[in-house]
Every structure is written in structure tokens, then in C-alpha cells.
Amino acid sequence: MDSREPGLLQRPAAKTALRLDPKILLGSNLLFVPLEGLTEECAKILGDNPFFYFAPPGWQSRDADIDELDPDSVPAPKSIEEHLSLQVATCPRVSDLAPPFSSAAFWCSFLDEKGYLNTSVAEIAAEMGTSAEAAAECIKSLQDYVEPPGLFASDLRSSLLIQLERSGLAGSLPWKMLTYGHIYLEERRFSELSRMMGCGEEDLNEALNLLRKLDPSPGKNFHTIRPAYPEIEFIIESGRPYPKLILENLPRICISVSDMSVSEEGILCQKWMRPFWSRARTALTRLGMRYRTLLKISFVIAEVQSGFLRGETDAVSPLTYETAAKRLSLSVSTVHRAVDDTWCRHLGRTIRMKTFFSRGASSRPDLSVKELRSAILELNMSGKNDREIGEILAIPTRTINYHRAKMSLPAKR
Fold first, then answer.
1. Do the beta carbons of residue 276 and residue 52 sit within 8 Å?
2. Which end of the chain is less crowded, N or C, counting CB atoms within 10 A of the terminal residue's CB?
3. Please, what is the end-to-end C-alpha distance for the chain in angstroms?
4. HSE value, Cβ hemisphere, 13 Å, CA-based, for 397
5. DSSP of 228-280, one letter per residue?
6. pLDDT in the model for residue 4
7. 289 and 395 part of one domain
8. 197 & 148 share domain
9. Do 293 and 242 reside in the same domain of the chain?
């Protein structure tokens, strides 16, 4: 073979280096584990350990007394299963099914937090042991029967169409826009949508206003009754707010043997004890990593939202996840996920920690959207119109008009 001709050459095999996976971090520091599952996750790290165990907080080891709960900690008075219980039991076609397929609990298990189906028709059919066509007919019966309209839809477009049809607006301009022109609608290509529908600008705007009045999340007002317990409390000392852990709401590690000693002759120093003690230290370290991060975020909140925490202002100051992440050398995703489902106690109320985060207005970065709307409300109630409010706040009139409309405040002349 001519040496100049291409031949088969052996090359070093490609090697893939181990990379840090976010899932690894999730398991290592417990930061994103909800408080309800924290004791269980700590127990998993501890493993089968005869000497150490994690005890759940008091609220988790006993049934909650509804009379003792903070009203702010209960998201809704009724779950969606309770709300739909009678409706599903009387729904045509569905009510004829054998249990448990005729129960609200069965059908609500396929709904996400917005009230949309989170499972395909084929999978639901497999659960029921029937055909996809039969399952689809049951879903259609539920869509046409239950209140509020829009539940059991496959997506937003389907939910809005159901709401229009239940209101007797099938075939109307908004219905046609969703059915045939939804691509233009989603991409906000209104001029092309108007030509396609053969309607003028006034009719188009009227149809758009009707669509905006529909409920994009018909299931949002229903939650499983689950009291929220705060992990952080903001206290005021010497005129300054500080965060502290609410220890009674957190899991704690316990020792099965009461006479354990850390002395050289103690049981903890015995060779056979090392694996059990090592797991306990690992669990405590990872639990500590969780609360170290939460406290670091809380100290940033205490500094930026000092006036709000002291009760001097009614709205929070501008604080974005990006700002907090940069100050703490964390990723934006880490800050967001850490506070998203974490609750805190402030002035006797239980609130989500994400309440303290608010972006600044584009024309006034020093003013959060919540502060802006609070000022608009006060000035609007005093009789100021949008132009006057804009001049006082040094913000464009169109911005004032937008936020006032979002707040459903009347226009002043």
C-alpha cells in the first residue's frame, strides 16, 4: 500500500472526564429538599444506623390542630379533590365507572397545579384498563361538566377553548383565533391575524380583551391542605433585622445510647463504631450546608429589606435573584430554588422567602415594582391622574397607565 494513501490508523480512545452534576449537589447539601421531606432524606444519608437517628420536628410527628394553625400558613380552605368530589360522582359517563375510576381522587391525580392534565390519554387508559378512545370520552365528559371550566385540558389553548365553548362562544371570533390563528396569536403577529380572520382592529382588540379575561390556570385556587412551617425568623435587635433558625420546626439528630463518650476510651472512638459515626457526621454536614446557604441568603434579605422588615415601608425594595447570587458567589438558579418553597416568619406572619425578591422598574431601577404599585395606589386614591403620578414619580405616563390597569384602579381625569 502506498504510504501516501489513507489507511486505518489507531487513535487514542476518547475519554470523558467526570463532571459535576447539579443532581449530585442536590443530594449532597439537601438545599432543595422541601422541609416536609427533610427528615426522611437525612435518614437516608444516615442509613441503617443503630446508634443515631433523626427525629422529625414536633409538627410532623403529630396531627396538626386546625384551630392552632396560622391562617397565613394554610394555602386554601379546600383541595381540588374535595371541590370536585360531588361533581365527578355525578358526571355523565364517569359516574357509571367502577371504583376507583369514578372518584375525584383518581381523576385529580392526573392534574397539575394549573388544572391541566399531566398524563397522556394513553397512560390514563392503561391505568383504567380500557381503550384510549374510552378514556378520551371520559375526559371530554369532565371537561364539559365540572366547574370551574377549563379543568382537565391538555394545555392552555385547550383550556381557553373549553371556557369559550362552555360560555356559548363556540364559533366566535376569539374561538376562531384560538382554533385557526393560534400561531399568530402566540407570536403576537396581530396584523397578520387580523387579515386571516377578516376582521378590523376594533373587533380584534375586543376579542383579545375577552381572551385576557379567561382563566389561564383554572386549578390554581385549589391546593392540598398543607400547613407551611417557617424555617427562618427575622427578628429585630438594636433596631436591625437579623435572621435566625426556628429550631423547633427542624429535624434533629438523636443518640440511641445515652452514655456515649468522645473520650479515648469512649464508644465513639472505637474502631467498629467509625462507620456509624462517619455517616452521622456526613448527614450533619450536609444539613449544615443547607442552613448555611439559607442563612447567607437571609442576611442579604435582612440588609436590603431592612426598612420593610422593621415595618417602616409597605413594599419591599428592589432585590433580584441575580443580585443576591452575585453577592454570595452562588448561581442564580441556586438562590431561586433555595427560597422558592422556603417559608419564614416576619412580624408574626408566615410568608414565603421569595416575597422579598422584586425586580426594579425599568425606568426607575431604584424602585421595585411592588414599591411602584404601592405609590401608584396611594396617589391614585388621592385623586391624581396618570400624568400627575408619572411626574411625581419621574416615570413615563404609559408605565403608570400599565400598572394602574393591572391593579384594576380607576382612571382619574
1. yes
2. C
3. 93
4. 8
5. ---SEEEEEETTEEEEEE-GGGS-EEEES-TT---STTSGGGSGGGHHHHHHH
6. 53
7. no
8. yes
9. yes
Query: Within this chain, do residues 329 and 279 fall inside the same structural domain, yes or no?
Result: yes
Other beta carbons within 10 Å of 36:
15
| pTM for this prediction | 0.52
* pLDDT band (50, 70, 90) for residue 344: very high
Mind listing the pLDDT tens digit for each residue in 107-152? Answer: 988 998 889 999 899 989 988 888 999 999 999 999 999 999 999 9
| Spatial separation of the C-alpha atoms in residues 247 and 281, rounded to whole Å | 19
Pair (310, 203) in one structural domain: no
pLDDT of residue 25: 40
Domain membership flag for residue 27: no
Reported as a single tens digit per residue, the pLDDT across 251-282 is: 988 887 665 555 555 666 677 778 888 888 88
CA distance 324 to 353: 13
Alpha carbon distance 361, 364 (integer Å): 5
- Same-domain status, 132 and 178: yes
Structural domain of residue 90, as residue ranges? 80-212
- pLDDT score recorded for residue 107: 94
Provide the residue count of the chain: 413
For 348, the grid coordinates are: 408574626
- Nearest-angstrom CA–CA distance, 292 and 29: 10
For 137, 140, 158, 302, the CA distances from 133, given in Å and listed in that order, are 6, 10, 18, 56
Q: What pLDDT does residue 234 have?
A: 95
Closest by CA to 248, choosing from 337, 341, 345, is 345
376 falls within a domain:
yes
Rounded-to-5 percentages of helix, strand, coil across the chain: 50, 10, 40
Cell numbers for 90, please give them: 355525578
